[in-house]
Amino acid sequence: xxxxxxxxxxxxxxxxxxxxxxxxxxxxxxxxxxxxxxxxxxxxxxxxxxxxxxxxxxxxxxxxxxxxxxxxxxxxxxxxxxxxxxxxxxxxxxxxxxxxxxxxxxxxxxxxxxxxxxxxxxxxxxxxxxxxxxxxxxxxxxxxxxxxxxxxxxxxxxxxxxxxxxxxxxxxxxxxxxxxxxxxxxxxxxxxxxxxxxxxxxxxxxxxxxxxxx
Length: 214
Hints:
- The protein is an alpha+beta fold.
- It folds into three domains: 3-104, Orthogonal Bundle (Arc Repressor Mutant, subunit A), CATH 1.10.10.10; 110-148; 153-208, Arc Repressor Mutant, subunit A (Orthogonal Bundle).
- Helices cover 58% and strands 11% of the residues.
- It has ten helices and four strands.
- A four-stranded antiparallel beta sheet has the order 3-2-1-4.
- A hairpin with a 6-residue loop joins strand 1 (3-10) and strand 2 (17-22).
- Helix 2 (48-71) crosses helix 4 (92-104), helix 5 (110-121) packs across helix 7 and helix 9 packs antiparallel against helix 10.
- The longest helix is centred in the first third of the chain and has 24 residues, at 48-71.
- The protein is rod-shaped.
């Protein structure tokens, strides 16, 4: 059945969207981009097929705008964007198209995200925990492993040493055994490997072995 657009009205709650009326009745809302794309105007005939095309196209614009708003707070991974759009119940086709566009625009880049995250966290936690955190954000393990290759065991050792040394300086009158237990637990929670933690604690606690502190 062929009907006509009888009114196009800017929405009160969102000035970027318009309401489309067909045969004097509200039919659907779309962004101005979609209005321009389909060159819609009052008096224009519109059938169900065209109407569905317009709605699908507008869902893409809406999804892209939501994704860009989500990205405005901080960088995100593909997985995080996908999950956000899933929460808003966009179709799989729309989500895939939005993510493809974001990748094309370099707004989403898992490799760059991983490198930036590692650079920020490498002095605060070990490689094991960094990898776990990035995997929880949906980044492929191969991307993570490749990004971590830029950081040597010496980098991880230096980070662990700085963390353990600072914490050790805060301890007063406790035994070697207690220091070792607390510091090894700290480094383990921060995701440092057993071998790194062992070497660090050997160096830091060497002078405490003979002390009879409790």
